[in-house]
Amino acid sequence: MKKNNIGLIISDVMMEEMDGFKLCGKIKSNINISHVPVILLTAKTDTESKIKGLEAGADAYIEKPFSPFHLKAQLLNLLKKRESQQKTYASTPLSDLHSAVHNKLDEEFMNKCTEIIQNNIEDSEFSVNTLAQELGMSRTSVFTKIKGIIGMTPNDFIKVTRLKKACKMMVEGEYRVTEIGFLVGFSSSSYFAKCFQKQFGMLPTEFLKKIKEAPSSATK
Q1: What are the distances in angstroms from CA 96 to CA 86, 193, 198?
Q2: For 12, phi and psi rounded to 5 degrees?
Q3: Nearest to residue 163, comparing CAs of 186, 146, 144, 145?
Q4: Which of 138, 194, 142, 146 is nearest to 166 (CA)?
Q5: pLDDT per residue rounded down to tens, the chain (220 residues)
Q6: pTM
Q7: Where are the alpha helices (DSSP H) in 17-93?
Q8: What does the DSSP 8-state code read for residue 150?
Q9: Chain mean position to CA 54
Q10: Cα–Cα dist 160/190, whole Å
């Protein structure tokens, strides 16, 4: 896993040297790979074993014997669910990261990324290199981690974080829309509006109108 970019792991529970529970626990406690989904296969059907698997951080737990078609369906369902959560986070103005993150370690990492970006929110020159330096990680590691957790590149995540901050500022109503774009690091109001529309399917002025007409609808 250190040498290869692994997208998903299927592991038996009963193995020599290290069982599936320990393997899963090691994966989910390693910040570099904790985002990788793990499916455990086992003949142990007792409740205690299932709880142990979930406590180790397993994303799914399949009992033996199982059909290959059932396994494939579980895989597809797991991946589609994650993809759907990622898309919802990216396209919904006021959704937060919690809805797209699947374990505590990854949530802490993404919260740290968000904090760093927001601390530099007005700096239009803020880049992935700066983010990586602040995190004490290589640019490649940051790319792999963010892409693995929320399905977008670090550059896109920086942009989405800026736009979501803009949405919150519009809700708070302390600044005009024309000011907010600059306050969240966009070089021009026209570029801010273009990025906003591409990300959320509406212009900033349309979002502001939705907030005033029906506050709850702005989150959908």
Answers
A1: 11, 21, 19
A2: -75, 160
A3: 186
A4: 194
A5: 878 888 899 999 989 889 999 999 999 999 989 999 999 998 877 777 778 877 888 998 888 888 899 899 989 999 999 999 999 999 999 998 888 898 999 999 999 999 999 999 999 999 999 999 999 999 999 999 999 999 999 999 999 999 999 999 999 999 999 899 999 999 999 999 999 999 999 999 999 999 888 765 555 5
A6: 0.87
A7: 20-28, 47-55, 68-91
A8: H
A9: 20
A10: 16
Give CA–CA dist 176/129, Å, rounded: 31
Q: Could you tell me the domains of the chain?
A: 9-66 (3.40.50.2300), 92-219 (1.10.10.60)
Whether residue 65 has a cis bond before it, omega within 30° of 0: yes
DSSP one-letter string for 84-147? HHHHHHHH-TT--GGGG--SHHHHHHHHHHHHHHHHTTT-TT--HHHHHHHHTS-HHHHHHHHH
Rounded to 5 degrees, φ, ψ at 151 are 70, 20
Which token pair is 100?
Answer: 């797209």
Residues counted in the chain: 220
